[in-house]
User: What shape does this take?
Amino acid sequence: MTLKECKTGMTVRVESIGDSILKERLMTMGLIPGATVKVLRSAPLGDPMAIGIRSYNLAMRRDDADKINVTQVG
Amino acid sequence: MATYVIGIVLAALFGLACRHIYNNYKSGKHDCCGTDCGCGCGCSCESHK
Amino acid sequence: MGAAVAMDNIMKVALTGNPNTGKSTIFNEITGARQKIGNWPGVTVDKKEGHVSYDGKEIHVIDLPGTYSVNARSPEEKIVIDFLLEEKMDLVVDVIDSSNIERNLFLTVQLLEKGIPMLLDLNMQDEAKRRGIKLDIKKLENILGYPVLVTVARDGKSIKNLLHVFTSISMDSYGPSDRLKAHIAKINEIEASGLTGNDLQEAIIKQRYAFIDEILSEVAEFSNVGPSFTEKVDAFLANGVLALPLFLAILYAVFQITFEWIDQPIADALDDFIAGDFTDWVTGALEGAEVADWMQALLVDGIIGGVGSVLVFVPLIFILFFCLSFLDGTGYMARVAFIMDPIMRRVGLSGKSVMPLMMGFGCGVPSIMGARALDNEKDRILSILAAPFLTCGAKLPIMALFAAMFFPDNAANVVFVMYIVGVVMAILSTKLLTATKYKDETATFLLELPPYRMPDMKTVLLETWDKGKGYLVKAGTIIFAGCVIIWFLGAFNFDGMVEEQSESFLASIGAVVGALFTFHGFGNWEAGAAVISGILAKESVVSTIGVLYGLADVSAEAEDAVETAEALGTTGMAAAFTSLSALAFMVFSQLYTPCVTALGTIKKETNSWKMMFFAAGYMFALAWVVSLIVYQGGRLLGFE
Assistant: This one.
């Protein structure tokens, strides 16, 4: 599944990131395959979403999260 | 007499004010803005790319 | 020889690091007010330099822009890497947020790869401890081969220690460790492997994080301490629909504090002084010196009345900037961008526009320039055209003056409503432009949500001063010059000096513009003149009113002013407007054509005269229509 489909509170592992203009930036920010991501919450109307990664929090739109393939670990 | 003195002082101040405005215009500077990004992330706006 | 000795005593230190690491706080704590903010050549990125004396040495500190990496993708990243590679520094300090060390080390490792020797400063040590992160400093030093020290930002002892380390450390005794060399060799291998473009970058990024993970597995201990303070707060402030009313409530609180609690007494005292004692003293002195009547009028009515009416509001501007800087320092502003993104997006703007737009509450100019950071043309233009609707620091005096005069019981609320009007119009106007002129395009939104922190007071104060001082400078220059001109225009016509202002040049010009507002309830020439002068600088609206009606009238309590005006049967300010027409005037001032500086910036940023004239005309028309609706709508509802 993709990060977009994840529900608040889920913990997932990044499997791969599809090509997008954000890919290099996401990876620089520590979102690389193998990294653990926690879905924290959503802004009003459900988008963008906030995730916790490597001891910090990051906000991204669900359309961008759709490019990130993950598997649930908790 | 006092009228002239004050007049000259005022004219000088007026000239200085105009010069300041002109210099700002020439150098593209603006008085009423700190150039800091107000976005709250501590960085300047261009790093949001 | 003397020069050589002096050179020895100067030490050059550069601070680098990620955003939100407390780097600027350290810079401000070290240098205090001994700093200057300039621009890096060719780009609109701040260059912050400062100096401090310690232990007989003169330490020059430069605060490099905060970046996550140095891939030279953005101007900031290019500045950082060019500077560190080209400038000879005695010491480069990499400020790291210990509570977020994994991502912070990315920049560290990248810089070390480039052969830049650095002192690692593990900052925010207290926060790391609270979040259950324990770091082994000695081990980290050994693994990388470079010195590591620990600080707690905002702790005086920490800073003192930092200065001590700066002056006593010898970087020559440090060099890359074998493990760092092995990592660099791997990077070189990847670069030589024939990969290109994105694949190469991605392989390098993976190797860096692999190295970081390896380091941290030895250096750091993470224990689970449950949800952090930030998580608990964000569960309310940045979570779901509730976040929006809370945002409004916070803004409202800022207004109440600014206007009711702090500014009111200061402004009243300043008012009394300028309009009372000071004016009396000047009048007395001028009469004593037998200064000509017209010169007395110029000084008292023109300059003191005009400049004074703006000066009264300078404390208000400073207090508001203080509150906004404080809020900024807590980390809340990033949440505002987060919760506003869905709304901005629906009207056709990217969530990223929120950030340059928020600067519009300070001044429209940086807000317009900030739109540069947006990556597509449509977003840039829309953002530029939305920024001037917001209530900048110069419009604040207009709102504050009219609110105090005509809505004395609800002044802060009325000003707050005007801010909301500005925001709503910026959004509606963007929607309108999107629907008529621009088609939607996709944009991205990626933003760090930093932990909530108690802002550093020194940083807040420095920022407040930096942003607010421009208004003092303007009062002494453009407002001063404007007042002199307005007074002359108001005192003369082709026949020479006039008895009544209503026969002057200004009245003739103002009447033409004023006629445009016949159905708005403020179709008088004074309002017309104020509207014209407001294009020069928005404070001029207030100073022109000050010149025309007299400061005493402007500053007096509203009821007194009404009584005075009624008693004298004059055309005082309180008599010239009703509450409703005052409201219509406020709405118009809020929305109409931006000042010449902002217009010039629009021309520069869009590189188009057409766009500039469009902006000027469009905003005037929109303001005219909305203000008309307010007045006529209000009348229909039975208000006056």
Observations:
- Residues 35-49 of chain B have pLDDT under 50 and may be disordered.
- The helical segments of chain B are 2-27.
